[in-house]
Amino acid sequence: MHRGELVTKEELCMAVWGTAEFIDENALQVNLTRLKKTMTGLGMRQQIVPIRGAGYRLIPVEVQE
């Protein structure tokens, strides 16, 4: 839904847990690491990149042939 747009940590917490309160920073990071690994295993052509101090962005991966 937000391809290329910045998605804040609070927005992600709301989408995953239904709240942005009392969520350990590490819990979000663990889930994102698992998601990135799954995306790579599925050969998806997008990747999640952190934007320091702001959130995350889903960007296309350049295909090397």
| Broad shape | globular
Write out the strand line-up for the largest beta sheet, numbering strands in chain order.
1-3-2
H/E order of the elements?
A: EHHEE
Number of separate strands:
3
Low-confidence stretches: none
Radius of gyration: 13 Å
CATH architecture: Orthogonal Bundle
What is the secondary structure topology, with strand pairs?
Layout: E1 6-8, H1 9-17, H2 25-41, E2 46-51, E3 55-60
Antiparallel strand pairs: 1-3, 2-3
How would you explain this protein's 3D organization?
- The chain is of the alpha+beta class and 65 residues long.
- It has one domain (6-60): Winged helix-like DNA-binding domain superfamily/Winged helix DNA-binding domain (Arc Repressor Mutant, subunit A, Orthogonal Bundle).
- It has 2 helices and 3 strands; from the N terminus they run E-H-H-E-E.
- The N and C termini lie far apart (28 Å).
- The mean pLDDT is 86.
Using brief descriptors, characterize the structure shown:
Arc Repressor Mutant, subunit A, alpha+beta, 65 residues, three-stranded antiparallel sheet
What's the short version?
The protein is of the alpha+beta class and 65 residues long. The chain has 2 helices and 3 strands.
